[in-house]
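Appendix B, example 12.
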Amino acid sequence: MKIKHKILLRKSLHLSLIIPFGIFLYLSLQTFAYAQEYARWFLIAFVGIFLIYEYLRLDTKIWVPFATLVKPKESETSVDGFNLVLASIVAIHLFSAPIALVAILIAIIGDTFSTIGGIYGTMKVFPKTNNKTTWEGVFLTLLANFFIASSILGFGLLPLILAVSGVVIEIYATRLDDNLAIPLGVGLIGELILLITT
């Protein structure tokens, strides 16, 4: 399988994380009895299934779907997506709902646009390093992040700051997993700005 094709398939799995968080959001916004409990138990079940999947892949070495798409560095450790799921759950519980939603979507969608820019872009931001970030990726990610943030928070300075924050974290979090850094970093910045401005 070609490397670019494999990366794009991996990113489609990354994007699919929108589905469980969308279901959680849908359940948590319902007004029927026990809706909040159902939402919470849905997230618990999702994390449990993800954990079992990772256990089967790593410790039993039996065949599991999508195992061939795992990055080489993740072949002996949990996948980065698990960090994203856990960081997103922390964001849901620490930050206000709109800020948490923006932070999670920037981590899922913005990261995908960054990767696409990295694959097809030609102008590297740091030409003399191993950092694969391209200016095309930066532009695409900034556009996607701003669209996400302004769709939820409305047009203004806050969505722009959150969009830029997501890009900056994506570029400079080279050793720290961006799946942890982006949802928590963007969420923290958003909450601090809300605290200062209100």
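The chain has a mean pLDDT of 89. The helical segments are 3-15, 18-28, 35-60, 80-94, 97-120, 135-153, 157-172, 178-197.
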